[in-house]
User: Which sequence fits this backbone?
């Protein structure tokens, strides 16, 4: 009887593992679509962002990577703000043009302070909660929070922040064994480099 019970006990674990893998694949597919729409600066990007954020949040939660889970929940909220601002700014440029806003020095300053203090504070918290990679998780999460806000404001240099954050996230996913997610962030890194030059070439300040 004991032997016949073992497969039953293992079944929920196998089902959850399959679900996680399916979600990671879904996140990878929608994530690539998200980046493509971001490069082209299409408002539909924010809708895709909601779906990708929800999938990634679940995946990171199961892996006990709490900061990245919280980051993706944050994406859901910023997506609403970004959609509103992009729809407003897109009315001021022509077809095929990218609407840009100038990055104030004050925003750069508070962003730098927020990154340093936020990373230190979040690292301390994550160590207390048993995070799998507290320093890397915290740094990638805080930088991505700032980059997402810059994206909603249509700052060209948001792409630079994403390049760094995506490289960090790739290392984090490899360290925690999330191979589909690691592949996703490698694509993100390459796309961010292209996105920077595309926005710079097509951009119009509004």
Assistant:
């Amino acid at each position: 009887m004991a032997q016949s019970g073992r497969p039953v006990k293992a079944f929920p674990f196998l089902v959850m593992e399959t679900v996680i893998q399916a979600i990671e694949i879904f996140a990878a597919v929608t994530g690539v679509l998200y980046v493509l729409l971001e490069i082209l600066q299409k408002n539909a990007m924010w809708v895709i962002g909601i779906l990708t954020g929800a999938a990634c949040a679940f995946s990171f939660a199961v892996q006990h990577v709490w900061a990245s889970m919280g980051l993706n929940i944050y994406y859901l909220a910023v997506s609403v703000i970004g959609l509103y601002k992009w729809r407003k700014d897109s009315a001021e440029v022509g077809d095929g043009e990218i609407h840009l806003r100038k990055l104030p020095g004050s925003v750069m300053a508070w962003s730098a302070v927020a990154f340093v203090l936020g990373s230190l504070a979040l690292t301390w918290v994550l160590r207390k909660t048993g995070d799998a990679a507290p320093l890397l998780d915290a740094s990638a999460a805080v930088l991505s929070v700032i980059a997402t806000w810059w994206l909603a404001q249509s700052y060209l240099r948001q792409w630079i922040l994403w390049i760094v954050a995506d490289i960090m996230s790739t290392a984090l996913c490899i360290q925690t064994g999330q191979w589909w997610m690691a592949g996703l962030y490698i694509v993100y890194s390459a796309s961010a480099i292209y996105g920077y030059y595309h926005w710079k070439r097509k951009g119009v300040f509004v």
